Amino acid sequence: MIILKDDYSEKVRYDYPDYPIYIRKDILSAFPNYAAPSHWHDDFEFVTILSGQMQYQVNGEIVTLNQGEGIFINSRQMHFGFSDTQTECEFICVLLHPQLICTTPAYERDFVLPLINHSELPFLHLRTDIPWQNAVCRQIRNIFAVKNSPSAQLKIQIFLLTIWTFLYENVPPSKKARPRNNDLMTTKNMVGFIQKNYMNKVSLSDIAASGLVGQSKCCKLFSKYLGRTPNMYLNQYRLNKSMGLLKNTDKTITEIANEVGFGGGSYYAEIFRKWVGLSPTEYRKHSAE
Q1: 243-255 average pLDDT score
Q2: 25 and 166 part of one domain
Q3: What pairing do the DSSP bridges indicate for beta strands 61-66 and 21-27?
């Protein structure tokens, strides 16, 4: 479940008190229509594919990740993984906040900010045929392997520093300052509006107004950066919320439909089956097995 800050970036629920580290192994079919919600956060994100394949979209650009490959997503980039062909994919996702390696102002100035502010590094596709990138994927798997050990935070710090050293030494310096992308900021505001108000009645005009653009520009931006219409994204987000309620509560289908903004059980069930391939009741039963 995504929790938002005031600027609509994700407030990550970390795995360890006082240590900004998030580690998960997941499958793509756990998300409606095999697509995670688009989001962004201050943390660096690292993903590596254990089996299968997925597409990954960052700021409107799509790359295909195959087994063994991975991706590094820089801080505050809008991103999500998906499969248009509904191909299953098992993957590890790791979020690490920059403060973990900003141990002194000098470290932050000399080694961290140059990559965070790098104009050509919103993300990096990590390939198996490039030794140092393959090594980064191996470190991501190492992070997952030690997540439950007594000294996990120390070991993860070592792996992160190793990863960051690979990035710092192999990514060419930025040739120019990162330009301000007003369209991306507008899209973030509209996505954030949906994530804050999905439980209420939301129209296309409401979404466009939250970005201070017309409805036509709103639709064009959603198509460019998310590959779907505003209404499709709204329904997907509502479905994602409802799946958590189906798995973790005893609320009725109608109660859940109303809580996530669908307004009626029959319409909710129709959309759910279209996107998930099961009825809400079937999904609940399947999740409990």
Answers
A1: 91
A2: yes
A3: unpaired
